[in-house]
Design brief:
The chain is α/β, with parallel strands linked by helices. It is built from 13 helices and 14 strands. Helix 8 links the parallel strand 9 and strand 10. The radius of gyration is 21 Å and the shape is globular.
Length: 376
């Protein structure tokens, strides 16, 4: 591993004022599509979820005459681009640092493009989290600070490859991105088996990806939403491949990123230059120490809560979940259900109302109390 230094906010030896700027990488807005296929993995482990899923599948088939396929469904995070930007900006500003924020929706650059259009003085980098088909799974690559004049054409090429991957094309695409000295390429949550193919199979895919394309990958990511035991594996992987680390918060809800980057750079291109030369400073904030299960639970509640100021007017969670029907049209769950939500949805809504009760929240806080053991 190159010159990566990890700073813990709770340590008395850590003082962010040593640096000029803070950089938030990897966070999502309402433009991201988050797959619903995780329900299959939950159902495989939990009988009640499996039962409710089967009931929902039966109801869908009765209504539409075809099988329900959650791979064709997705949910969207609650925050509009400006709200997501502001949450990250304010956290860094409160540390006494000059903020830089790179929003990375899944396979979509509309959030940074819209922010640039509204106020070019913000100098928001045009960035994306690209879903890369690889072997028998998919990997995520953070691409930060695309050239504005080529951003849309580049995004089109990325989407084209994702839809129709071609042997050798991935290396060509990454090489072209690498050719721009102001662009940063990051292997996000490299040790997370998000595709559910098995830990060993995922590790083999990650190693093969780095073997084929590693010369064009500038850094590996410590991820603010993944548990520390997995992040330690990423640290080991970075050492093995002599790559620096960067912090990516991976925020999907309303909690700001729990991992940030610290730098002496005054602008994003200069920060990219530091990382590409192997120099990186990461700040792990105190909220990351909360029990991983508690943070995931709280984020889930934030996603399910009503959002009265939603940028598209989707105030209730069923309005923020979508499905592609057999004829290719896209419908929200709210429009598909009308006034009769299926059992799984009723259960989620009921649980949401229950946990919002103060005495229940107190019990849950106690049940999931504890801290994440964060040690190098």
């Amino acid at each position: 591993m190159k010159e990566t230094r990890i700073h813990f906010q709770w340590s008395p030896q850590t003082d962010p004022s040593w640096f000029q700027s803070g950089v938030s990488l990897h966070s999502h807005t309402l433009h991201s599509r988050e797959s619903l296929d995780f329900f299959y993995r939950i159902a495989a482990k939990l009988a009640p979820v499996r039962y409710l899923l089967r009931r929902t599948e039966a109801r869908y088939k009765a209504a539409y005459g075809s099988a329900l396929d959650l791979n064709r469904g997705w949910w969207t995070p609650p925050l509009a681009p400006l709200d997501a930007f502001t949450i990250e900006f304010d956290q860094i500003k409160n540390l006494g640092l000059a903020p830089m924020v790179s929003l990375t929706d899944h396979d979509d650059i509309e959030a940074p493009m819209s922010l640039q259009a509204v106020d070019a003085s913000r100098r928001v980098p045009i960035s994306v989290e690209w879903t890369v088909p690889f072997r028998n799974t998919h990997l995520h690559v953070g691409i930060h600070n695309l050239r504005p004049s080529r951003a849309r054409s580049t995004m089109s090429r990325l989407l084209e490859h994702a839809a129709n991957p071609r042997e050798g094309a991935l290396k060509e695409i990454l090489a072209a991105l690498h050719a721009s000295p102001e662009t940063l390429i990051v292997f996000n949550h490299a040790m997370w088996d998000e595709g559910g193919i098995g830990i060993s199979a995922h590790r083999a895919a990650a190693f093969d990806f780095l073997a084929q394309c590693g010369e064009y990958v500038h850094a590996l990511e410590l991820n603010g939403l993944r548990p520390w035991v997995e992040n330690k594996q990423v640290i080991q992987l970075a050492r093995a491949w002599s790559k620096p680390l960067v912090a990516g918060g991976d925020r999907h809800a309303v909690e700001p990123n729990t991992m940030l980057n610290l730098t002496q750079a005054a602008g994003f291109p200069a920060f990219v230059d530091e990382v590409r030369h192997g120099n990186s400073n990461i700040l792990i904030t105190t909220p990351y120490r909360e029990a991983h299960a508690k943070r995931i639970f709280n984020n889930t509640l934030d996603v399910l809560r009503p959002c009265p100021d939603h940028g598209f007017g989707w105030t209730e969670w069923p309005e923020r979940v979508f499905y592609t029907l057999e004829d290719g049209t896209v419908a929200s769950l709210a429009s598909m259900w009308g006034g009769r939500p299926p059992g799984m949805a009723s259960l989620l809504t009921g649980l949401m109302r229950l946990v919002e009760q103060p005495h229940i929240r107190g019990v849950l806080r106690h049940a999931v109390s504890g801290t994440e053991e964060v040690l190098l």
